[in-house]
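In this section we turn from sequence analysis to structure. A common task in structural bioinformatics is to predict how a protein folds when a small molecule is present, because the ligand can shape the pocket around it. The inputs are simple: the amino acid sequence and a SMILES string for the ligand, here zinc ion. Study the lines below before reading on.
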Amino acid sequence: MAGFTKILWVKSIRRNGGRDWAYFEEGTEDKFDLNFSRKHDTSMENVKPGEIILLFQRVNKVKGVKAKTYLTHLVTPTKEASRPVDVPHRFDRVIKVQVIARMKKDVPIYSKADILNFTNSGFGGAINVGNLNKRKDLSEIQLLIWNMFLEKSTVNPLAYVQMPEVFTEDFFATEGGDKEIGPHITKERNTAVVRRAKEEALIKGNGRILCECCDFDFFDFYGEHGFNFIECHHNDPIAIGGERPTSTADLAMVCSNCHRMLHRKISGTDIYFNVDTLRDHIILEKSKK
Ligand SMILES: [Zn+2]
Ligand SMILES: [Zn+2]
C-alpha cells in the first residue's frame, strides 16, 4: 500500500451543525461508520478500497464568529459492512472506514487558506483532493497533507503504510575480500530499529528519504514505485562482525549505488569509505568535472 499518493478525496464532516467534533467519540479511533447524505450517494461509490479520504470539519460554530477549519482524519474504506442507520435521515448512506491518521482535536492545525482552499468542498460529498488548489500538482497537495498528519497525528500514518522490504545487511567480511553482501541480507529487513530509522528519516526529510551520500531520491526518480525505498547501512564497522544495530544512529540511509561503494575497499588500501567520507569524495569528484 502506497502512502500519500492515495490521498485522492476530501470530504467535510460535521456534528450538530458544526458545534461539536465529529468522529472523535470513544470507539472511533480505529474504524467508524462515515456518513454520506443521500444526495452524495455516487461520490461515496467513487472512493475505492485502498484510496484515502481527507476529512475536515469546521468546529465551534458560534453565531457571528466564523468557525475554523480543521483537518481531522485520513481514512480509507474497508470491505466491512457498516451498521445500518436505525432512523433514516439525510445522512443515512454509510461506509465503514479505517482510520489511518487522526489529529489531536484541540490543535487547530489548519490556517493556510492560500495553499489549500476548502471553501468549495463543504457540501458533504467526497470530491477530488486536487480541487483544493488547482494551480498545484496533485502530488504536491498530497504531500502537504501527508506531512501535516505525520507531524501532528495521534495515530502514526506510517503504521498503515506497509513498509516495503528494507535492504539492509548482515554483512560479513570475506577472507581478504570486500565486505560481501551475503546470503544473510534478508535477516535484518524490517527489524524495529530499521523501521524506526526509516520513519525518522521520512519525518526529517518531509516525507522523502534522500541518500545521505549523494542525495538520490527514489521517489523523485521512480515515482510512486520508488516511494519509501532506501537501503540501510550500518555506520559502525563493528556491526560487520554480526552485531545488530540497536539504535537508529547506527544506521545510515543510502541509495543502492552508494551502498555498494561503501562496501568496496578504497583502491590499493584495506579501508572503506564511511558515509561522510564518501559524501566528500562525491563532492570532490563532481568538482573535477
Ligand atoms: Zn547515493
Ligand atoms: Zn552497508
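Residues 211, 213-214, 216, 254-255, 257-258 surround zinc ion (ligand 1) (CB under 6 Å). As an exercise, try to locate the residues that line the zinc ion site and compare them with your own expectations.
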